[in-house]
Amino acid sequence: MQLSLLQQAIASVYPSFTGMTFGSWEGVLLNFNEICRGGSTLVLDEFPYLVKACPSLPSTLQRLIDSRILKFNLIICGSSQRMMQKMVLDASEPLYGRADERLNLQPIPVRYWKEEFQLSATQVVEEYSVWGGVPRYWELRERESSFEDALDNLLLDPNGLLYDEPLTLFFDEDGKGSLYTSIMNALGAGNRQYSRLASAVGKKTTELSVPLKNLGEMSFIAKEVPFGESEKKSKKTLYRIADPFMDFYYHFVSPNKSLLAIGRNGRVKDIIRNQFNTYVGDYWELFCRTAVSGNELEGHNWMMAKRWWGTVLNEKGEQEQVEFDVVAESDDKKYLLIGECKWQKPDYAERLLAELKRKSLLVPFIGKHKVIYALFLKNKPIDEVDAPVFLPDDVLPYC
Question: From residue 369, how far is each of 144, 315, 336, 366, 375 by CA, in Å?
């Protein structure tokens, strides 16, 4: 069936292919090679499904590519990330080392959605925190009259097009869809440390290394360590859901499916409404760190910005949990930028700055650095302050 459909597609461009029949991939590809114009391009989409029907297809392509007789360009693509990576990057696979170019399509950055949908900077931060950068989700969102309607009809309705989207994405991945789902549910519930994550999914820590690595390679999760610490050596490593759509889903939809199934959508919407600013605040922090990283602000070029968190002794000699939303070192190692991010109603900037300065005196990494303090706020502050203040319109162009 696949060979017949490909023959018809080729015949629409090369009429001499009309009526021809082929019993193998090698036959159709060699015949196409004979009649096609040099430099033509053949695209085989959803390649893993083709391989599932014909496991010898990668070996066939290997022989043809190695023979160097092909005068057309060949593109293979597929939405099953793990299978595509395995076919091209695994040294035991026939196509290993045969690719001239690899394209891993990333989510479209937040700044472009602002331009495309003519949203305010505040609106796009909130909506991107739900839909992420995948065009399909925004395409569905565009069909709805409002953000609230989109949530109701796409995510909170058991018949909604995105209601089971993560299950569909994980269905094709190595047969481990249920384990991946358990990990994502655990992360959505706040189990971000390795040991707590293993306990939440009922696995030994040694059993999680491979699925966590796979989820990371698929860009569904990411590791995070405090500023100044090595990702390989740090004992403070946290995991987070990296894709905004998946994050929202496992924060609000998956844990409340029982309520949604019996029509208690109003209750679930109340839960979302009560927690939404806190949820979006995490992405606001991420956007602010992205805006600082590798850019020039306040007369200095900054390296990668990160969070910092830890336990310190405060002015009273008591242990205190301290966190900084944005910490970055200048290229010349002389300056530190320390920032506070707030996604809430207008506040007093002087109070926020005073608290930021107080906490900075307690941490060990300041050293001999000169410190530049910055506030990243959803709304213009109530008062004036002697420090740079960045609002969504200032941040998004750099994200």
Answer: 50, 21, 6, 6, 19
The set of residues, in sequence order, having a beta carbon less than 8 Å from that of 143 and lying 6+ positions away, is none
- Do residues 72 and 36 touch, judged by C-beta distance below 8 A? yes
Could you give the CA distance from residue 365 to residue 312 in angstroms, rounded to a whole number?
Answer: 12
- Tens of pLDDT, residues 163-179: 999 988 886 655 667 88
Q: Which residues pair with 323 in a beta bridge?
A: 309
pLDDT, tens digit, 9 for 90 and up, residues 331-373 = 999 999 999 999 999 999 999 999 999 999 999 888 889 999 9
Kindly state the tokens that stand for 179: 């384990």
Half-sphere exposure for 100 (CA within 13 Å, toward CB): 5
Which residue in the block uniquely carries the two structure tokens 């949908």? 117
* pTM higher than 0.85: yes
Enumerate residue ranges in the chain where pLDDT < 50: none
| Pairwise CA distance, residues 237 & 223, whole Å | 7
Element (H, E) at 8: helix 2-11
